[in-house]
Amino acid sequence: LSLYSSPARETKYVENPQTQLEEGVSRLRHVMEPYTAWCQQMLRLTFEARASLSSALCFDLFSEGCEFLQNPPAGFYPRLGVIGFAGIVGLFLARGSKIKKLVYPAGLMGIGASMYYPQQAVAIAKVAGTQLYDWSLQGYIAVESLWKDN
């Protein structure tokens, strides 16, 4: 038995109003929900495909990639961060045109990667240069043949 009488409980749950930040995060989560669901589905399909692969070559490549990411060379992640940040800066600079959205991030990421990996950049530039020369020569021949026909 209690010596004191307890007051009647008339409590009501009152929800605090959402702040602008909470509302913005909520809207962002609702907008991004289809994309995150798609990514989760792609990850699920990727893991199912990886489990069903019987090719030793694919498994070896995947395991080598995982091993590389678990034991990266010194300075790999900071370099990767700088290159990724260059791509994000390219997205911000490429407002407007769809072509800019393709060229700016890829170009800035290429410049960032070439700063850290100059030998590979030179090799890629040589191959790209020869292919660009071949394509331009083929285009020149095609235009020349059209000009002569007319």
TrEMBL record:
Family stated for the protein in its record: Belongs to the apolipoprotein O/MICOS complex subunit Mic27 family.
Keyword entries, A-Z: Lipoprotein, Membrane, Mitochondrion, Mitochondrion inner membrane, Transmembrane, Transmembrane helix
Localization of this protein: Mitochondrion inner membrane; Mitochondrion membrane
Species in which this protein is naturally found: Cathartes aura
Glycosyltransferase recorded as keyword: no
UniProt-listed GO biological process terms: cristae formation
Main subcellular location of this protein, as a coarse class: mitochondrion
Purpose of the protein: Component of the MICOS complex, a large protein complex of the mitochondrial inner membrane that plays crucial roles in the maintenance of crista junctions, inner membrane architecture, and formation of contact sites to the outer membrane.
Transmembrane intervals: 76-94
InterPro entries per the UniProt record, alphabetical: MIC26/MIC27 (IPR019166), MIC26/MIC27_animal (IPR033182)
Keyword ATP-binding applies: no
Subunit: Component of the mitochondrial contact site and cristae organizing system (MICOS) complex.
Name the UniProt record assigns to this protein: MICOS complex subunit
Coiled-coil region: none
GO cellular component: MICOS complex
